[in-house]
Amino acid sequence: SAVRTAINALQRYKVLNTLTNDCFDKALETEQQLSNEQKNNSPLYGRPILIKDNYCLQDIYTTCASKMLANFRAPYTSTIVQRLIDSGCIIVGKTNMDEFSMGVASWGVFGPVGNPWSVKKATNIDEENLKKLLHVAGGSSGGSAAAVAANFVSIALGSDTGGSVRNPAARCGCYGFKPSYGLLSRYGMIALVNSFDSPGIFTRNIDDLILTINAIAGPDGEDATLLSKPFERFQSSTELLKDKKKITIGLPDEYDINKLSSEYRSCLQDLVVQLTATGEFTFKRVQLPYASYSNAAYTILSSCEIASNMSRYDGIKYGHHTNNIDESKDTYEDILRKTRDESLSERVRGRILAGNYYLLEENYEKYFVQSQRVRRGVTNDYTKVFEEDKVDCLLAPVVSDDPITHAEYEQSDTIFTDDDIFTVGANLAGLPALSFPVQVSSKGFPIGLQLIGPFLQDQALLSIANRIC
Ligand code: GLN
């Protein structure tokens, strides 16, 4: 059975640490109850899938890879997860991630996700030694990306706030799609930065992406930021291929950063040469002057929203609650402090602290308001290249070099990287973006690139991708 095969693969490659918790028994039971007739009629019916552990699934642990939520069972199911269940998908587990989606290594309280390509390269090595050789899978949705890339399942959900779907997709070698802001409901997806957060999808081909979007998009009264107009189903990839219009693709100068390795730069240039030769594509250099400020604006704005969002984790209504209470003198603040000290990593607490600092009355104008202006500038830059330079989409790197090992990451532990410049722009402006695998590097890692399209031109973007890939 399809579910059994997925479970076997997940168990066999446990060393990759892709799951935070599983629903193997329930999945097998659900599969038993499927009728063959329904299975044949719907391509999603009976499909084993995985969802990032920041999506609520009723009665199942939803941990965000944090000690804070280690014992939290969601009381309800997220809208898009429910729609996948209704389409016949079978959830086999929740995937590993960075704590509360902060980071690029998918390394929360359950330890790091391993890059499947490390395993592919290593032969005759026992599990313990292999563990020491693993490279990062990217993040924060690395468990989902690794599981799809390694063919454990064909579809997985992630979330993308500043690149958390596109980054691990590029690192692991699969498709990672972050749609336009407002296309997919965020209801039941635990918020990191509400104004940037978008659900995202991992697959190994564009057909599965389209199938998944068609199953989950559409109005939802539970998410006020969702587009209210009815969703028009995306056409299948064969339909999309009939569109023979010549495509103009923009290459932003600002994304050609120093850190971009020569191999990754060549990968992009080679693709440009190849596509130009087909006669169907033209390329154009374009400028996004605000891009150089986008990492700063992202850091500040995300921290501010995080500070506000995380205030719900006080350990009173749900989540971790300290046992170390001195009834005679501890105030509410003392209990709150102990609860958070015990259950949130330094990284998460640091982000909350930074956000509260930026939001202090004397800093508000200097940081928050100024970053909002940059956000507007970034958005206008994109609008300008799409409207005035008349490019259909942009082609850009996702990361600038091969992944480092877990050991190296431990030394350098950082949430933000220079590479964020490639990804955060689409979140600041709410644009659709698709990371896709292009080639394998000399050291044996996948190199991914991304397409970024105009707001709500999601179908057109997938159509272009379909012609490229
Ligand atoms: N590195 C980004 C951050 O920590 C990733 C966020 C995301 O997309 N979830 O903010």
Automatic annotation (TrEMBL):
Domain Amidase, first and last residues per copy: 5-462
A single GO molecular function term of this UniProt record: glutaminyl-tRNA synthase (glutamine-hydrolyzing) activity
Localization (cell): Mitochondrion
GO cellular component term, pick one: glutamyl-tRNA(Gln) amidotransferase complex
Predominant location: mitochondrion
Pfam families referenced in this protein's UniProt entry, alphabetically: Amidase (PF01425)
Active site location: 52 (charge relay system), 140 (charge relay system), 164 (acyl-ester intermediate)
SUPFAM superfamilies: Amidase signature (AS) enzymes
EC number: 6.3.5.7
Keywords: ATP-binding, Ligase, Mitochondrion, Nucleotide-binding, Protein biosynthesis
GO terms under biological process: glutaminyl-tRNAGln biosynthesis via transamidation; mitochondrial translation
Reactions listed under catalytic activity: L-glutamyl-tRNA(Gln) + L-glutamine + ATP + H2O = L-glutaminyl-tRNA(Gln) + L-glutamate + ADP + phosphate + H(+)
InterPro entries in the cross-refs: Amidase (IPR000120), Amidase_CS (IPR020556), Amidase_dom (IPR023631), AS_sf (IPR036928), GatA (IPR004412)
Family the entry assigns: Belongs to the amidase family. GatA subfamily.
The protein's assembly and partners: Subunit of the heterotrimeric GatCAB amidotransferase (AdT) complex, composed of A, B and C subunits.
General function of this protein: Allows the formation of correctly charged Gln-tRNA(Gln) through the transamidation of misacylated Glu-tRNA(Gln) in the mitochondria. The reaction takes place in the presence of glutamine and ATP through an activated gamma-phospho-Glu-tRNA(Gln).
Name of this protein: Glutamyl-tRNA(Gln) amidotransferase subunit A, mitochondrial
